[in-house]
Amino acid sequence: MQIVVFVFNSWVNTMANVITYGTYDLFHVGHLRLLQRARALGGPEGTLTVVVSSDRFNWEEKHKKCAIPDVQRAEIVGALKCVDKVLFENSWEQKRQDVIDNKIDIFVMGDDWKGKFDFLSDLCQVVYLPRTPDISSTELKRQLKGLAESGK
Hints:
By secondary structure, the protein is α/β, with parallel strands linked by helices.
């Protein structure tokens, strides 16, 4: 049985299993805040599973090259106190099975993915959290490239 309580003007589970996905390349405060908010949705007795996109998946499916290898990105994410478990993402299709295998109650993504994972709503609650304004790995990479090109 799940118990739900009202805290700080929002409903929060006291024991829900939460899952989220991401690349987490050039880990930044936006990643941290999203993971902390995802973990809070599970309540004090809940868990947060974070699924880190593998290098192969990023290259072959997303056509992205990461600056940080997947094993190191997973180690960084796993070191956070809000994270209970880290898995690797190897295909778009694995999300449904991950939800089932890990007994997930809440699937969380940033709101830039709004609507894309609603197909999981027959298995769990799907939540899209607002992104942290003015920060993204893409923007950080753009800024770093600009600095490198300017010689500063």
